[in-house]
């Protein structure tokens, strides 16, 4: 059953846009931009329910207040994600009370730069930092234990 004033997932557009998630209990706001508004709200809900949302403050409040306290609102739709991202940055920078923002990065960029090409120097530094570290199985017994665990895991998956 849908709460009054809360849009159904099917009512949220699938275009690029800027959105906010408002916590009605404490007034905190998360501002975001995306290439598909409906998919993004679905992803937020899923990661909150699953316990793995990347924004720890938002997730902490979710565990306290529950999903019913959070409202997804489309601020503006755009033709491209680049336009939406630019507008999101402006909204974050212009937001009067930054203490009420869940956003970790005030710039409008994600804090973890995933899938960003790394320079040769960065790759070499990562490689150097891992040298001498034995991260694999230590003994034949350890290898057997890992193999047995994997077999049980696959057996459980096939049974489901």
SS-derived structural category: alpha+beta
Q: For the largest beta sheet, what order do the strands appear in spatially?
A: 2-1-3
Q: What would you give as the CATH superfamily of the domain at 11-100?
A: GIY-YIG endonuclease
In which range does the helix fraction lie?
40-55%
- What is the multimeric organization of the chains shown? single chain
The total count of strands amounts to: 3
Order of helices and strands: EEHHEHHH
- The name CATH uses for the topology of the domain at 11-100 is GIY-YIG endonuclease
- The whole-number mean of residue pLDDT values reads 82
The CATH architecture classification of the domain at 11-100 is: 3-Layer(aba) Sandwich
Tell me the distance between the termini: 30 Å
- By CATH reckoning, the class of the domain at 11-100 would read Alpha Beta
Tell me the radius of gyration. Answer: 21 Å
Largest sheet: 3 strands, antiparallel
Figure out the total of helices: 5
**pLDDT below 50 for ≥5 consecutive residues: which ranges?**
110-115
**What is the global morphology?**
extended
Strand content: 5-15%
Describe the structure.
With 160 residues, the protein is an alpha+beta fold. Strands 2-1-3 form a 3-stranded antiparallel sheet, with helices on both faces. The chain has a domain at 11-100: GIY-YIG endonuclease (3-Layer(aba) Sandwich). The chain has helices at 37-50, 56-65, 81-94, 120-130, 140-159; strands at 17-23, 29-34, 70-77. The protein has 5 helices and 3 strands; from the N terminus they run E-E-H-H-E-H-H-H. Strand 1 and strand 2 (29-34) form a beta hairpin. 16% of the residues are buried.
